Amino acid sequence: MIKQSKYSHVPNFTDYMKISVIEIINFFEKDLRNKKILDFPAGNGLVSNELKINGADVISADINSAYPHYVQADMEKILPFNDEEFDAVVCLEGIEHTMRPEALFSELSRVLKKGGLLIISTPNVQNFYSRYQLLCTGYLYQFDPFDKITLKPNEVRDKGHISPVFYTQLRYYSDLHGLKTLKPKGGRLKRIIALPFFIPFLIIGLWWSIRDWQKTSKEIEKFEIIKHLFTIRMLFSRSIIFKAAKK
Question: What is the pLDDT of residues 158-171, one digit of tens each?
Fold first, then answer.
């Protein structure tokens, strides 16, 4: 049996990390000087290091002590930062490890300045491969129930992937906390070779979504949800990179 580590560490600079860094650089028009950015959870510090190379003032926070300069912070608790302290907040592959995703989103929004950028990456449970696995097994891709850790009282460690978070949830949280959802990005594609098989489902799904929009909303702004949901990246990427700007 493979023993799960106490803390999750991604050993390499992944596609979702690279995309997130590029999105931040482009958002600030390629000038990160005097920009204070929170990287939480920071993991091995790969994103923090890349942002620092590009001139940003980065605060790395995590429950682990990978480096002595890390700020100790728990995703399940109030963050040890002031309101509107950061120009950008990055939370990569973290929100799905929490019991209360909305509470974490609320804290990330609280510490973000008005006009600032929030980026959250999480396993894309809406891609077709994940939908197929749910149909066959009863659980989503990357959320199998066999490796979850039940924490003891006052124990601090990684619990694993316990909370699947959908794009529609993140968008709702964004509206709730005064942020404007931007067009999401996606990491590497998963089983894109199966696209021809899924075309009938795509056509039905698009028709179904438009019908629901017509029945319950008809707001032009809400139609953007359909545009986002039916992009190739949303349908087939392994990870979703959710972006929102604070109003």
Answer: 888 999 999 999 99
Task: Please calculate the CA angle 158-159-160 and round it to the nearest 5 degrees.
Answer: 95
Name the residue type at position 31. D
Q: Where are the alpha helices (DSSP H) in the chain?
A: 15-27, 46-53, 101-110, 128-137, 167-176, 195-216, 220-229, 232-236
Residue 189 to residue 116: CA distance in whole angstroms: 28
Question: Comparing C-alpha atoms, which of 231, 107, 101 is closest to residue 177?
Answer: 107
Query: What is the model's pTM?
Result: 0.93
Given a cut of 50, the residues of the chain with pLDDT beneath it are 1-4
The matching CATH number, chosen from 3.40.1000.20, 1.10.3210.10, 3.40.50.150, 3.40.50.300, for 15-148+160-246 is 3.40.50.150
How would you classify residue 45: left for phi > 0, otherwise alpha for psi between -120 and 50, otherwise beta?
left
Q: How far is CA 66 from CA 38, 42, 62, 157, 181, in A?
A: 16, 9, 9, 13, 32
b/e per residue 194-220 (b: at least 16 CB within 10 A): eeeebeeeeeebeeeeeeeeeeeeeee
Asked if residues 112 and 246 have their Cβ atoms less than 8 Å apart, the reply is yes
Strands lying side by side in the sheet with 239-246: 71-72, 57-62, 36-39, 86-92, 112-123, 239-246, 179-186
